Amino acid sequence: MKQMKNIFALIGVITVAYLLLTSNGQIAGIDSKLTEAVTQIESSIGFSHQEANSESSGLVDAVVTRSSDGDTFHASVNGRNETIRILLIDTPEDQKPGTPVEPFSREAAAYAARVMPAGAHIKLQLGKAPDQRDHYGRLLAYVYEPDGTLYENDVVRRGLARIAYVYKPNTDHLTQLEQSQSYAESHHLKIWSIPGYVTSRGYNPSK
């Protein structure tokens, strides 16, 4: 609501500025004058285009507190420490008790820690109700790296993750991920370099 009021205020300022300038015959340089006026009003009301874009896109700000593996990490979200389970992907396992370290699991975990280290500011696209948490209580989300890259697409295209756990309504970005997975598989990248390793139910370490 606050951002909408700010937007209406900006529209009002632009309209008034335009009328004043045109009525005085000051068409030349109107763009720079309007830009200056808009900048001043933005500063006075604390408005930023980045804030508006973030709000309209439905993304939530978060800060990484601790990395875990390639598809799970911890972050501060709205003042709460949450365990985030990244939607639509599955990376090889290296922390499950009683199971062997799966090939490329450490590479996936290391990459996640590199692009989203502790303290990194990221954005989350939360899962859709009623499926916003999994049965472990972890918050489900699509994750955008600090530079704006969709993390899921990044790791799938690099061959560090497979598409998995595809359940409606949380199927946003699925087409994009399928294209990236096809690319990784056809180029035999990482997990796809071992024949038979990737299965529809997970990974087969014996391969």
UniProtKB/TrEMBL annotation:
Nuclease keyword on record: yes
Keyword field: Endonuclease, Hydrolase, Nuclease
Top-level taxonomic group: Bacteria
Keyword Transcription in record: no
Protein name, as recorded: Endonuclease YncB(Thermonuclease family)
Pfam families assigned: SNase
TNase-like domain span: 58-194
MF (Gene Ontology): endonuclease activity
